[in-house]
Amino acid sequence: MGSMRADLHTHSRFSDGTQSPTELVAEAVDVGLDVFALTDHDTTIGWDEAVTAAQDRGIGLLRGMEVSCRWEGISVHILCYLHDPAGAEITAAIDQARSDRIVRSKIMVDRLSQDFAITWEEVEELAGADATIGRPHVADALVRAGIVRDRSEAFGRLLTGSGPYYVALPVISPVEAIRMIHDAGGAAVFAHPLASARGRVVPDAGLRTIIDAGLDGLEIDHRDNPPEGRARLRVLAAEYGLIVTGSSDYHGTGKPNLLGENTTARDQVEALVERTTGTEPIRFP
Ligand code: AMP
Ligand code: ZN
Ligand code: FE
Ligand code: FE
Questions:
Q1: Of the residues 222, 224, 255, which should be mutated to test ligand 1's pocket, given the most ligand atoms within 8 Å of the CB?
Q2: How far, in Å, CA of 266 to CA of 6, rounded?
Q3: Which phi and psi (to 5°) does residue 156 adopt?
Q4: Which of 59, 168, 243, 279 is most buried (most C-beta within 10 Å)?
Q5: How far is the C-alpha of 128 from the C-alpha of 66, rounded, in Å?
Q6: Measured from the CB, is residue 136 less than 6 Å from ligand 1?
Q7: What is the pLDDT of residues 120-146, one digit of tens each?
């Protein structure tokens, strides 16, 4: 088997990316990926469109999503691959997260609107139909109002978890998420475990507890994991026999991350697919 370029973490406009799944597929083909995974936050709404486009363009697709979780007050993202969306518990959990996101984002907009000229209606409009609403869309309203230059400045100055406008999202723990993902036949990978620029990260003891809950893999090659931390994660992955992934976390023009900037080795993609029974991969292996 030859080499393979696989990028297992991307977002479309159904969460906080800026492209349709069809546009994302076209770009994945352009940058020479053999396989990619669509992993919108807390939703599978983009799956059908992505499947059609991937089949049309002849690229491999893993259907996935990124599940919002919290571990002892720390925000954690668990990537879920190839689960069965008919799995009632995980689907109820992401649906709940999506509606809680609306409540929470409205409160943040309410607080921000005391100081800045933005409205909830604008945020909804900028997010577009059926998108999982989040701080990136609030950021877009701040950009449009000329208050910040881009999403990064909005996160740095106004939307940070330590700031006065921030409201936490009520979400499940990664341990529960892993169980629900497995019950639905999916595989669970800890996304950007050491992304400290976004806030506190889970300490090693917590990581080991989450691994013991049945975690399948660690997303190690991700731009938000610092180089010295990656070495430590590789030791942990070897110790527990975890799958190791590398991904871009591409958000279109919503973030500087470039599609295909990190990739996952073929044997790791195969191991991930092998652990799942919920949904078939498209054109893979
Ligand atoms: P939320 O889930 O609503 O709390 O928003 C967090 C999401 O915003 C993360 O999943 C990231 O994808 C995105 N995000 C975090 N930091 C930034 C940034 N600096 N620029 C653009 N998007 C970001
Ligand atoms: Zn995102
Ligand atoms: Fe994430
Ligand atoms: Fe992501």
A1: 255
A2: 7
A3: -65, -40
A4: 243
A5: 19
A6: yes
A7: 999 999 999 999 999 999 999 999 999
